[in-house]
UniProtKB/TrEMBL annotation:
It comes from Aphidius gifuensis (Parasitoid wasp). Its cofactor is Mg(2+). The keyword Metal-binding applies. GO terms for biological process: inositol biosynthetic process; phosphatidylinositol phosphate biosynthetic process; signal transduction. Mg(2+) 2 binds at residue 90. This is Inositol-1-monophosphatase. Its EC number is 3.1.3.25. Keywords: Hydrolase, Magnesium, Metal-binding. GO terms for molecular function: inositol monophosphate 1-phosphatase activity; metal ion binding.
Amino acid sequence: MNLDEYYDVAFDLVKQAGDIIRDRINRPKDIMIKSCEVDLVTESDQQVEKLFMDGITAKFPDHRFIGEETTSSGEKVQLTNSPTWVIDPIDGTMNFVHALPHTCISVALLIEKITEIAFIYNPVLEQLFTARRGQGAFMNGKPIKVSGEKELKKALLMQEMGTSRDPEKMKIVFENFQIFTSKVHGMRALGSAALNMCMVALGGADANFEFGIHIWDIAAGDLIVREAGGVCLDPAGGKLDLLSRRVLCASSIELAKEISVLISQYYPERD
Ligand code: LIP
């Protein structure tokens, strides 16, 4: 096993994927609907995922993949101990469709179910977030750190609306806006789960939570936040389970715990 080689090969592929996203964002797109009218996919999502998988397979034929666009809707995700690349080829597809420049490729390598390598790349704003287990987190090669904020009343908090319009899920989203808006400095949402997590890692936001995301939205962000000194938990305060479709990350354990006792919980069907 050669983690340096895995990192270098994936780094080149992530940069190539970024070139496609940057080149296409302002052009007309073929848009297809997935689970509902606000859950979209474009031909670029599919091409980027194929480019990444083909590039890895050519070098490391025994590696496995969990990719957003190759996992059929409703299919159960199989995470084994084999080296597995978890890929969201375009996270923030809705932003990409509208040419809002908060969109990225998100890639994580898990070996024996432990995340070793993570990349989140927004090629439009030229922000490349990278991390390796135990080696810190970086943006464009420079080390990044969470804010360290411990108090909810001074926090900038992120919550996404998500890509489901299920009334039960929407009720929870609105309840949480109501619970937190008057208790924090401000609420934000970039439209990309992966980039929201990077903002916590960068110290630009203090915490982020979302229900209904998938493993490909958060696997890379989880490592980047932890390597930047932050915490990633289940929103009820327990250990993060990447397949649970629930995430809470924060700049400190104190802040994460304060959020987890107030938050209105939602338990989607697991990945
Ligand atoms: C989406 C995220 C969005 C989040 C959704 C979904 P996609 O990913 O980026 O911010 O709210 O749950 O996961 O579909 O653009 O890759």
